[in-house]
Amino acid sequence: MSETVITYGTFDMFHIGHLNLLRRLEALGDRLIVAVSTDEFNAAKGKRTMIPFEQRAEIVRSIRFVDEVIPEASWDQKLDDVKRHSVNTFAIGDDWKGRFDFLAPHCKVVYLPRTDGVSTTELKRSLNRFCSVSREDVLRAFDVLEQLRRDFA
Ligand code: C2G
Fold it and tell me: Candidates 3.40.640.10, 3.40.50.620, 3.30.2130.10, 3.40.50.150; correct CATH number of 4-117?
């Protein structure tokens, strides 16, 4: 009897926190379905994504222990998904603890610990810091240019 697990998420800028979660889900069953939030649904969630849906879905689909990727287009599709795919376990990170207990009459509901220290939001902040040039860098560059101008005047 196959044990089907389903989870939902944006999976923007795919990182080790996402991979750790999906790897743990693999251990909960023998078939893993991942519902990836569409760009439109992310807008409804108030989330701006860096990577468009098709690419986020393709990255998740390429993970060897993911068996199927479906779009997550609304908050209200979970129960239909559980029934349509004969899901045995719904699982998601514990930042959602309690939010999906309404599924408990239809399947096991599991909240797994998140991976500390990594998030898409933090990655975006680090990227901004990495790419932004500080005022001090600009002033230092002008000083060097000014010195070069004097040296070669
Ligand atoms: N996650 C994690 N550790 C992190 C970051 C994320 O375990 N450091 C987990 C989240 O708990 C979630 C999954 O990875 O289970 C995907 O996270 P997001 O892409 O942020 O998805 P989210 O916005 O939580 O969307 O209907 C449910 C929503 O679509 C969930």
Answer: 3.40.50.620
pLDDT score at 102: 98
Phi and psi angles of residue 16, each rounded to the nearest 5 degrees, phi first: -60, -25
Which of 12, 16, 37, 92 to mutate to test ligand 1, by most ligand atoms within 8 A of the CB atom?
A: 92
pTM, two decimals, is: 0.88
Pocket flag, ligand 1, residue 11 (CB < 6 Å): yes
Q: What is the Å distance from ligand 1's center to 149 Cα?
A: 53
Find, among 13, 68, 17, 11, the residue nearest to 45 by Cα.
11
Q: Does the pLDDT at position 57 exceed 90?
A: yes
Condensed to tens digits (0 to 9), the pLDDT of residues 33-56 reads 999 999 999 999 899 999 999 999
